[in-house]
Amino acid sequence: MKKVLLVTFSDNADHQDISFGMFESIYMSESDNCNIWIMGINNPKVPVMDTPHTHLVDCPKRPGIEKKTFDIRELHKIIKWINSQSFDVIFFETLHVWNLAIMMFCHKNTVIFQMIHDLIPHKGDKQEKSVHLMNKAVCKLADYIVLCNEKYVSKVTEIYGVPQERVRFVDMWRRFPRYTEPSYSRRVLFFGRMNPYKGVDNLLEIAKKCPEIQFDVVGRVDPQVQELVDELKKLPNVMMNNGYVTDEEMAKAFIKADWIVLPYNSATQSGVVIDGYRFGRPCIAFSVGAIAEQVCEGVSGYLIPEGNNAAFADKLRGAVCMSEGEYKKMSQNAYEYGVKKYSAEGAIGRFMKLIS
C-alpha cells in the first residue's frame, strides 16, 4: 500500500477543493492500495474532513512570497513532520515557494509529483515572470510533472527540458454536488478574475451585439482591464459584481445563469468550465488553448473559432432561445459529462494509475 500525501498551500477555494476532494474520495473508499493524507493551510475557504490524516499548517499565501516566507522555524517543522511519516509519494497540486524547500529536503526515496496548471504563463499577466520561474524550478526538482491537458505535454520538454518519461497527463477533478435544476432565466455568466487573457475586450463587444441578453459579470478586476470593465458597466444588459465572492455567492451566480461564457484570448484549461458542469450549466467558449479538450461540442456546450465575436454572439442568441425541454436536456448532459470526466470520486482510478 502506498502512503501518499496530497499538498496544497493555496488560499484559492478551487485548488483547495481539488486536493480535498481527492483526499476525501480515497479516504472514504477505504482503499487497500492507498494510505492517503492531506496537507493544507489553516482556515481553508472550503471544508475538509477532520481526520487523523488531515494536517493543516500555517504558511504564506500562494505563491508564498511575503514576510511569512522566511518563517524558517515553521517550514522546518513541516519538513520534519513529512520526513517522520515516510511517505512514498508527495503530490503537490499547486505551485508554492515552500514546495521547493520540501522537495529539496524530504527523504530521497519519496517520489515527488508536481501539477502545473499554467505551463505557458499568460502574456500581460502581472505574474507572468514569477510563474515561469516557479515552473522552471519545480521542473528541475520534481520527479514527475503533471498537466491537466494533453495538448501541452510535449511543451514541457520543449520549454523546460523535462524528459517526456517524466511528464504525465490526468484530467482535472472536483467535488460535484447533486444536479441543479435549470432556472430558465436566459441569463449568461462570465465568472472569474478579469485579466487581459480572459477576453474582457471580447466580452464587451459580444454584450453590445446581444442587448436582449442579460450578462452577469462576476469577479475581481485586474487594473490592466479597468477601462474595459468601466465600459461594460455602462451597458444596461450587464450586471457587475467585482467584490470578493463567497462560495455561496458563487453557487447562486451559476445556478441563476443558463449559460457560462468564456470569450478568452488565451488559456490552458479552465476551471470555470468544470464549475459550470458542477451546476449543470453548459458553456460557450472560444476554442483557445486546451479548452477544446473540456467541451463536448453540442453536448456540454459549444466551441467558437478563436476571436470570432460575431459567431460567438450568434451562437449565444440561439442558445438562450432554446425551448425549456431542449435546454434541460443539454443541462443534464453537461452535468453528466462533467461527473464522468471530472468528478473526484470518478477520478480515483486515474489518480492511482498516475502515481503508480
Describe this structure in words.
Helix 6 runs parallel beside helix 7 (226-233), helix 6 packs across helix 10 (309-320) and helix 9 (271-278) packs across helix 11 (324-342). This protein folds into two domains: 2-169, Rossmann fold, CATH 3.40.50.2000; 187-341, Glycogen Phosphorylase B (Rossmann fold, 3-Layer(aba) Sandwich), CATH 3.40.50.2000. It is of the alpha/beta class. The chain has helices at residues 13-29, 72-85, 97-105, 128-141, 153-160, 200-209, 226-233, 247-256, 271-278, 309-320, 324-342, 348-355, and strands at 2-7, 34-41, 54-57, 89-92, 111-116, 144-147, 167-169, 187-191, 214-218, 238-241, 259-262, 283-286, 301-304. Helix 1 (13-29) links the parallel strand 1 (2-7) and strand 2 (34-41).
Order of helices and strands: EHEEHEHEHEHEEHEHEHEHEEHHH
Helix content: 25-40%
CATH-defined superfamily of the largest domain = Glycogen Phosphorylase B
Q: The biggest beta sheet, please?
A: 7 strands, parallel
CATH class of the largest domain, please? Alpha Beta
Helix tally equals 12
Number of domains: 2
Give the strand order of the largest sheet, numbering strands 1, 2, ... along the chain.
3-2-1-4-5-6-7
- Secondary-structure-derived class: alpha/beta
Low-confidence parts: none
How far from one another are the termini?
11 Å
Beta percentage is 15-25%
CA-atom Rg in angstroms: 21 Å
Morphology: globular
Strand segment count = 13
Mean pLDDT: 94
